[in-house]
Amino acid sequence: MSTTTTRARPAALMLTPAAEARIAELMGKAPDGTIGVKLSTPRRGCSGLAYSVDYVHEAKPFDEAIETPGGTFYIDSASVLYLIGSRMDWKEDDFTAGFVFDNPNAKGACGCGESFTV
């Protein structure tokens, strides 16, 4: 009788240390009942899909969960296929601050950088 072993599945998205630190900061000031931060890709913008990061109050059965030092980071189950292999970073300078995505699945983006297409 042979035994089957399964290896751990890699996370759909890689978080940089700066992104993890920002998630910890968000969780530190999260409203009561918040269980994590969630990334989704709703349809909007010039190119069709946008990145949206929000607090989450309940886990959905098929959402991807990534444990970080500052709390759980969720990826909407409908968005996982658009994000596999992506890298999420947090960038801040004198004029802007926000999460930045390096997404190998994106085939194009709008000129303002608010949305992408796959």
Observed structural traits:
118 residues, globular, single chain, four-stranded mixed sheet, 9 strands
Notes on the protein architecture:
With 118 residues, the protein is α/β, with parallel strands linked by helices. The protein is 14% helix and 34% strand. The chain has two helices and nine strands. The chain starts with 12 loop residues before the first strand and ends with a strand. 23% of the residues are buried.
List the helices and strands and how they pair.
Elements: E1 13-15, H1 17-28, E2 36-40, E3 52-56, E4 64-68, E5 71-75, H2 80-83, E6 86-92, E7 97-102, E8 108-109, E9 116-117
Parallel strand pairs: 1-6, 2-5
Antiparallel strand pairs: 2-3, 4-5, 6-7, 8-9
